[in-house]
């Protein structure tokens, strides 16, 4: 084993064996959303960088700043840099929020790269964050990785009409960013296939999201009599399909079924109005935004988890619900079938159908033993398949491969 020093004077372990690199790395991760901002991608960034820092890597994160937040927060090997962004809210960046983040993050990226000798850069979202990869590629000439998350892939979210012309306009830019990356990752095979519609010659690795099972684990559920309680945890945005779940409650309330919706978002006022218009306000409660550490209590009060999404790249909340021992009812869209085993861990239903929701809830509501078995199956699946430590190991492996090789994202003959 030889020892070397990087430009900042840090002593690093270097293992040279068969041309392989194995040493603590200096990594910069960039995402315009980071808790409490954003949803699944922000949480995925947080959990991954925490695990990477625990594995001995020095990780700097550049993300957006809320008015009350400090510019810098550090903990051992992990430093969070927050820059100005004109966001609409915690849960919505908007076009100005995305653009302002890119400009602010560019200055921070330039400043930090003059101080620290980063081994690799990791961009969450091809757009807008991935635009900063142009500077890394041209000015720094350093390797980078792009993680596709959903809305940055053309054709993923058809509920936001402005995305289609925007993606069409920026398609050459997306192609350039993806093709120059050492690796491109997607969080599901479905999202990978969708991305190949835009860039068929780019190799894409699939690295799922994960969960800390111990955070949501509870005592084994006992069979309970009484009215069934549903829970839906999601952003209040159009693509989550909440109107179909609310309409379904018009029928389900006759059986005493109750629903709790946890989350906030741009359509909160519309959701409240629609609940009242459907005359189901006595059977639906809105909990609003709940921090990650408080979600376990809400899952613990429920019997069935429901996610009626119209599009979904992965569905982080599904893993949380499964860890809590809940059976799952979810739309058979996007990456959801890669997580939920139909009939074994829950029921997959057609999207945009209140009738399908009513039918699925009624089946499980009338069969407590089946719910119990599905919940136990889900706990086992999450424990063995979806852990953040595994996600960090997968990214760590890609980092080392990227440092050992030249660009590998473009297939031969492209």
Structure characterization notes:
Helix content is 38%, strand content 18%. It is an alpha/beta fold and 414 residues long. The strands form 3 sheets. Strands 5-6-4-3-7-8-9-10 form an 8-stranded mixed β-sheet, sandwiched between helices. Helix 1 (40-54) packs across helix 13 (388-404) and helix 7 (242-252) crosses helix 11 (354-365). The model is unreliable at 1-19 and 409-414 (pLDDT under 50).
| Gyration radius from CA atoms, angstroms | 22 Å
Taken in chain order, the helices and strands follow as EEEHEEEHEHEHEHEHEHEHEHEHEEHHH
Shape designation: globular
Strand order of the largest sheet: 5-6-4-3-7-8-9-10
Mean pLDDT comes to: 90
> What is the terminal separation in angstroms?
40 Å
Classification by helices and strands: alpha/beta
The residue ranges in which pLDDT falls below 50 over 5 or more consecutive positions are 1-19, 409-414
- Tally of separate helices: 13
Query: Roughly how much helix do the residues carry, as a percent range?
Result: 25-40%
Count every beta strand, where a strand is a DSSP E run of 2 or more residues: 16
Largest sheet: 8 strands, mixed
Q: β content, as a range?
A: 15-25%
């Amino acid at each position: 084993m030889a020892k070397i020093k990087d430009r900042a004077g840090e002593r690093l372990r270097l293992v040279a064996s068969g041309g392989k690199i194995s040493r603590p790395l200096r990594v910069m991760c960039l995402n315009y959303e980071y808790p409490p901002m954003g949803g699944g991608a922000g949480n995925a960034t947080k959990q991954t960088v925490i695990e990477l820092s625990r594995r001995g890597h020095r990780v700097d994160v550049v993300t957006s700043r809320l008015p009350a937040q400090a510019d810098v927060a550090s903990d051992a090997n992990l430093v969070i840099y927050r820059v100005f962004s004109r966001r609409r809210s915690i849960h919505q960046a908007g076009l100005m929020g995305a653009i302002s983040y890119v400009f602010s993050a560019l200055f921070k990226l330039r400043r930090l790269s003059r101080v620290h000798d980063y081994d690799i850069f990791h961009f969450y979202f091809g757009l807008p964050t991935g635009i900063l990869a142009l500077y890394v590629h041209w000015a720094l000439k350093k390797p980078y990785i792009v993680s596709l998350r959903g809305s940055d892939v053309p054709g993923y979210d058809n509920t936001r009409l402005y995305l289609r012309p925007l993606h069409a306009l920026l398609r050459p830019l997306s192609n350039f960013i993806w093709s120059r990356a050492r690796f491109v990752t997607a969080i599901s095979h479905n999202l990978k296939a969708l991305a190949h519609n835009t860039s068929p010659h780019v190799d894409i690795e699939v690295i799922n999201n994960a969960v800390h099972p111990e955070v949501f684990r509870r005592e084994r559920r006992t069979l309970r009599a009484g009215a069934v309680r549903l829970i839906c945890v999601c952003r209040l945005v159009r693509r989550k399909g909440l109107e179909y779940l609310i309409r379904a409650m018009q029928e389900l309330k006759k059986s005493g079924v109750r629903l709790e919706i946890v989350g906030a978002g741009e359509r909160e006022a519309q959701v409240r109005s629609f609940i009242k218009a459907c005359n189901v306000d006595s059977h639906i409660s809105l909990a609003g935004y709940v921090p990650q550490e408080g979600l376990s209590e809400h899952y613990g009060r429920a019997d069935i988890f429901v996610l009626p999404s119209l599009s979904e790249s992965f569905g982080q909340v599904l893993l949380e619900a499964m860890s809590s021992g809940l059976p799952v009812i979810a739309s058979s869209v996007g990456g959801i079938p890669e997580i939920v085993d139909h009939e074994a861990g829950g029921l997959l239903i057609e999207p945009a159908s209140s009738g399908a929701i009513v039918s699925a809830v009624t089946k499980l509501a009338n069969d407590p033993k089946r719910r119990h078995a599905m919940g136990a199956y889900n706990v086992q699946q999450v424990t063995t398949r979806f852990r953040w430590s595994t996600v960090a190991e997968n990214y760590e492996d890609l980092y080392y491969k990227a440092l050992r090789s030249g660009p590998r994202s473009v297939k031969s003959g492209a």
